[in-house]
């Protein structure tokens, strides 16, 4: 497959600049207490299994390894692009090394991009370009292609996969198939049944101390902890599961690329973002199940540390919210209206995405990648 640009630095950066950045990063971590580092990591997860294990890990291991991964399966939405950047940067700030597993073989097993590995790998390179543009701290990140790494150490990987498969029945493995976006009631291919055994093996293959994935991946991470019981392994991988952003339509618990109107894509232009947010479900005074408020909580506040609303004096005048609790209080009382929220949210999201647009407009290689991915991933009607 095509070589991936070195993930340690932005294009054109010198190795000395990368070394200096890494040194600065280490110095920053050294100023944090174990309690500070724990708070940063715990803040990523909607759920942590287990907190006491996470604290012990930080006390005993100077640079824990965090595992994250993705299937290159088409255009990237904002949860993959921005939320992942926020979470990865927090992990690095807390002193972790982050291994991002580019699961190209897994996408092929799951029949993404028609099972065409060349197309899948093009999508993988496009995704890396996006993270460069968003400001992901690549000094603490190692991108690993599953097809390359598994082939390098096949004698280590496949016996591990087979052992996990031997120690679990089909019913237990099938329950994990929701990690692929598949129902356990679907008729699955043999490859898709094999997939959870491989993803479970990845955790040990990459020597991960922490699994930092979405709540939708929880089942296979639990399978890894159960496997530790089977093999009498004391140190289990810690599961740090982040919240899943909903789609923009009522009742959509998870953002989906299959419905382009319900998700913001990383290269969406300003007008597209404005239209999608304008049409989003955002009931007055209702916080629960309100996707616009979730975007503010999980993207805008972590990115900017505030949320700015611009409105006429007759509607209450401009206001800057310093935290989500303050915003919720105004929203539930009716002092903050959806007509105030939506334009302010669109403005914030467009500001976050502008560097990505600029990168894909100004970098010729990146432009070819995004145009190729769009051809491979036409919008579904």
Automatic annotation (TrEMBL):
Keywords: Aminoacyl-tRNA synthetase, ATP-binding, Cytoplasm, Ligase, Nucleotide-binding, Protein biosynthesis
Job description of the protein: Catalyzes the attachment of tyrosine to tRNA(Tyr) in a two-step reaction: tyrosine is first activated by ATP to form Tyr-AMP and then transferred to the acceptor end of tRNA(Tyr).
Lineage of origin: Eukaryota, Viridiplantae, Streptophyta, Embryophyta, Tracheophyta
Top enzyme class: ligase
One of the protein's GO biological processes: tyrosyl-tRNA aminoacylation
A molecular function GO annotation: tyrosine-tRNA ligase activity
Origin species: Eragrostis curvula (weeping love grass)
Recorded catalytic activity of this chain's protein: tRNA(Tyr) + L-tyrosine + ATP = L-tyrosyl-tRNA(Tyr) + AMP + diphosphate + H(+)
Protein name stated in the entry: tyrosine--tRNA ligase
UniProt EC number: 6.1.1.1
Subcellular location: Cytoplasm, Cytosol
Coiled-coil positions: none
Entry's Gene Ontology cellular component terms: cytosol
PANTHER family given in the database record: TYROSINE--TRNA LIGASE, CYTOPLASMIC (PTHR46264:SF4), TYROSINE-TRNA LIGASE (PTHR46264)
